TrEMBL record:
<dbReference type="InterPro" id="IPR043128">
    <property type="entry name" value="Rev_trsase/Diguanyl_cyclase"/>
</dbReference>
<feature type="domain" description="Response regulatory">
    <location>
        <begin position="8"/>
        <end position="124"/>
    </location>
</feature>
<dbReference type="GO" id="GO:1902201">
    <property type="term" value="P:negative regulation of bacterial-type flagellum-dependent cell motility"/>
</dbReference>
<dbReference type="InterPro" id="IPR011006">
    <property type="entry name" value="CheY-like_superfamily"/>
</dbReference>
<dbReference type="GO" id="GO:0052621">
    <property type="term" value="F:diguanylate cyclase activity"/>
</dbReference>
<dbReference type="Pfam" id="PF00990">
    <property type="entry name" value="GGDEF"/>
</dbReference>
<dbReference type="GO" id="GO:0005886">
    <property type="term" value="C:plasma membrane"/>
</dbReference>
<keyword id="KW-0597">Phosphoprotein</keyword>
<feature type="domain" description="GGDEF">
    <location>
        <begin position="167"/>
        <end position="302"/>
    </location>
</feature>
<dbReference type="InterPro" id="IPR000160">
    <property type="entry name" value="GGDEF_dom"/>
</dbReference>
<dbReference type="InterPro" id="IPR029787">
    <property type="entry name" value="Nucleotide_cyclase"/>
</dbReference>
<feature type="modified residue" description="4-aspartylphosphate">
    <location>
        <position position="57"/>
    </location>
</feature>
<dbReference type="InterPro" id="IPR001789">
    <property type="entry name" value="Sig_transdc_resp-reg_receiver"/>
</dbReference>
<dbReference type="GO" id="GO:0000160">
    <property type="term" value="P:phosphorelay signal transduction system"/>
</dbReference>
<dbReference type="GO" id="GO:0043709">
    <property type="term" value="P:cell adhesion involved in single-species biofilm formation"/>
</dbReference>
<dbReference type="InterPro" id="IPR050469">
    <property type="entry name" value="Diguanylate_Cyclase"/>
</dbReference>
<dbReference type="Pfam" id="PF00072">
    <property type="entry name" value="Response_reg"/>
</dbReference>
Length: 302
């Protein structure tokens, strides 16, 4: 879940000479993207991996820096990218306006190279720290996969998207079979290690970047499969069952098999079999999980 990427700065100015001057100061320490027009700036700002900082000119012919800042701060994808205005507009009200639009800092031209470097470094450090905290808040500490908070957020997003595009959406609820006797006999430390191994195995199964595997609670996991019908969902559930079996983790106290297994509950929202809301879909997957347990565990059910 943790990804490494070079720290990137997007420089936006209609004058290439200004871009070169800023880039010369910063290119030793950061990856530099550049744009001389507003449309291009908005496109680059929203393109993953997102820039970590934007240096933004104000006076530009087609779309001015204020407009660009306003749009970036009002778009979900780009709103947390810090923006520093770098501008010849030196009046107090210009600076106030820029900061009120949500800019992190304001530098007037002509600038001091050392001050630009220092202000950029401060904003980058703050941004990287915020990113790390955000990641920690969304990741499960034991298994290092997304946690329930992240799962709930993604499910809400996917449900909102589905209301627009009318696609199907599937949900899986997964529970380790007879995990209480596993803990009781092998100890809590071994139980934790088992959870880590199962989590990593499950996490590696889905192939689409929009699929999400999360630790939902104690020994329960949940999977979101956007734009996936019942057939695709059943296939994926089978691959999850196989992935856990392939771990071949000994469990001499399971009533199902002499190794660790899971049960999977499946629910699919589609235009012809709709659920009322995301909560109802979750309840559907929960009831299906109960079915899978009742049918003997180590299987998937609707
Ligand atoms: P079933 O097949 O019906 O799911 O049986 P089960 O024994 O797995 O079900 P139950 O819900 O009774 O047990 C879940 C157990 O998971 C209880 C608890 O000891 C264990 N557990 C939950 N969270 C953790 C954890 O973070 N670490 C460890 N080691 N164990 C956990
Ligand atoms: Mg300009
Ligand atoms: Mg359970
Ligand atoms: Mg269980």
């Amino acid at each position: 879940m943790l990804e490494e990427k070079p720290t990137t700065i997007l420089i936006v100015d209609d004058q290439p000479t200004n871009i070169h001057a800023l880039a010369a100061l910063l290119k030793k320490d950061y990856r530099i993207l550049t744009a001389t027009r507003g449309e291009k700036a908005l496109e680059l700002a929203a393109q993953p991996p997102l820039p970590d900082l934007i240096l933004l000119d104000i006076v530009m012919p087609d779309m001015d820096g204020h407009e660009i800042c306003f749009r970036l701060k009002n778009a979900e994808a780009t709103k947390s990218i810090p923006i520093i205005f770098v501008t010849a507009l030196g009046e107090e009200q210009d600076e106030e306006h820029g900061l009120n639009l949500g800019a992190a800092d304001y530098i007037t031209k002509p600038f001091s190279p050392a001050i630009v470097r220092a202000r950029v470094r401060n904003q980058i450090n703050l941004k990287l720290r915020t990113d790390r905290l955000e990641q920690v808040a969304m990741q499960d500490g034991l298994t290092q996969i997304p946690n329930r908070r992240y799962f709930d957020q993604k499910l809400t997003e996917e449900w909102t998207r589905l209301l627009r595009n009318g696609q199907s959406l599937s949900l899986l609820m997964i529970d380790i079979d007879h995990f209480k006797p596993y803990n009781d006999h092998y100890g809590h430390g071994a139980g934790d290690e088992c959870l880590r191994r199962v989590a990593q195995a499950l996490y590696q199964v889905p192939q689409r970047p929009t699929d999400l595997v999360a630790r939902y609670g104690g020994e329960e996991f949940a999977v979101i499969l956007p734009e996936t019908d019942r057939l695709g969902t059943a296939h994926l559930a089978q691959r999850l069952l196989d992935a856990v079996r392939a771990l071949a983790l000994e469990h001499a106290y399971s009533e199902v098999a002499p190794q660790v297994t899971i049960s999977v509950g499946m629910a699919t929202h589609s235009p012809d079999q709709p659920y009322y809301d995301a909560e109802a879909l979750k309840q559907g997957a929960d009831q299906a999980l109960y079915q899978a347990k009742a049918r003997g565990r180590n299987c998937a059910a609707w």
